[in-house]
Design brief:
The chain is α/β, with parallel strands linked by helices. The protein contains 8 helices and 11 strands. Helix content is about 35%, strand content about 20%.
Amino acid sequence: MIIIGHRGARGLAPENTLASIRKALEHNVDEIEFDVRATKDDVAVLIHDAHLTDAAGNHLPVERHSFAELKKHKTDLISLVELFDAIKPTKPLYIEVKPGTSVAPVITAVDYALKHGWTAQDLRLGSYSQSILKELHATFPDITKIVIERWSGVRASYRARRLGTKRIAMNQRWLWWGFVGPVSRRGWQLTPYTVNSTKQAKGWMRLGLYGIVTDYPDRFEAN
């Protein structure tokens, strides 16, 4: 069972930051997941919410501000290109592109990575949005796509077949042993989010679960 750091390792360091990603690497994860959105000036940046909230409580819509403007309010905000330059391709990066995000800046950043030492095998591209995944697949057919769904296994498998992928991510709240076992036996590479219980993970592992997304990779390092 593979261990995927959630937003880097958000239980151990501020999420979607270089510090969080380095913390995930420190605990020897198999993949590192993080979120990406695009700024007003077409820079792909690591952030989960559509609004950046600074220390003063100001809410700045990411798509309406430049990277430089947002950086003034959050000094550890990092662009996807900066991330590719900051770390070596030792573990696959699982890039979740948030719905509504302009795909062009993501394509630009991934293309940059592929020209600077990263390979298709070093990357994963995931999204709740099928249209985003289709656009990314058209540009990067050799990079693994991950279909992200909240609860519907039927919809998830339909979307995955359309993209020619076996990777599915679903909210762990909606999963139970009678689903996890059969889905795993059918060859789907299911990675529920967010799993922080080692007991739960071990139970699903016995059913053949492919992997988990966790805030606390340190809890699973020796397992």
